[in-house]
Amino acid sequence: MTNLCPRSGHVVLLGDSVFDNGAYVADGFDVATQLHQALSPAWRATLVARDGAVAGDLPNQVAQLPADASHLLVSVGGNDALGHLGVLDEPVGSVAEALERLASIRDAFRADYLDAVTAVLALGLPTWLCTIYEPRFPEPAMQRAAIVALSIFNDIITRATAMHGVDLLDLRVLFNEDGDYANAIEPSAHGGEKIARSIVRVLLA
User: How many CB atoms lie within 10 A of CB 98?
Assistant: First the structure.
């Protein structure tokens, strides 16, 4: 990856294993390393995101930010959604009952996510929020159901960008081939390179 960014700054990655994917890339590079390689020498990139983090962990990550942080990327929510994966197998008496269960999950995530975003934006730094990319489950029925259910989480994220006037990095658009995934839910080195290049592009915009 070539150096693309002529300006200077210190970009910090917050969230979960979308950024902290080192455990899943074998001999490849994780997102943070690929971002560092893609940035000009005038830039720094720091990984504060942690594998397994949920939206409620973001305020603690904010407390770990370097003092000279200048730009923030937030990718969180996938583990919140994953924690409710079992609901897809629960029996229900009607479509309305299924939707009510999903609505309750949505409401809980909305509260956690908006609290987390408030803590991040209170810093007053340029910030991008990332959508949750779709999984690659091998079973077609599970894949279709997961994509539909995931849309309620992404709706909260996209609404948050409009509510707070911040920019969106839509990972659903980036992750469009099997090679983007190390497994059903984690980014591969190839997928991580896509993320890193997209971050550079938004920093330059």
Answer: 16
For the chain, domains (ranges, CATH) are 9-204 (3.40.50.1110)
**Residue 180 C-beta-side C-alpha neighbours within 13 Å:** 17
- Are 168 and 158 in contact, with CB atoms under 8 Å apart? yes
CA distance 171 to 132: 6
Task: State pTM to two decimals.
Answer: 0.91
Q: In angstroms, rounded to a whole number, what is the distance separating the alpha carbons of residues 112 and 92?
A: 26
Q: What is the pLDDT of residues 180-195, one digit of tens each?
A: 999 999 999 999 999 9
58 pLDDT above the threshold of 90: yes
Using alpha carbons, select from 186, 188, 191, 189 the residue that is nearest to residue 175.
191
Query: Residue 154: which of 134, 175, 184 has the closest Cα?
Result: 134
Q: Which two three-digit tokens encode residue 68?
A: 């000279």
* Predicted local distance difference test score (pLDDT) of residue 22: 93
Six-digit token pair at 177?
Answer: 């081939």
For the sheet containing 167-169, what is the strand order?
A: 43-47, 9-15, 71-75, 127-130, 167-169
Q: How far apart are CA 72 and CA 97, in angstroms?
A: 39
Beta strands in the chain (DSSP E): 9-15, 43-47, 71-75, 127-130, 167-169
The angle at the Cα of 136, spanning 85 to 95, to the nearest 5 degrees, equals: 40
With a CB cutoff of 8 Å and minimum separation 6, the contacts of 4 are 38, 39, 40, 197, 200, 204
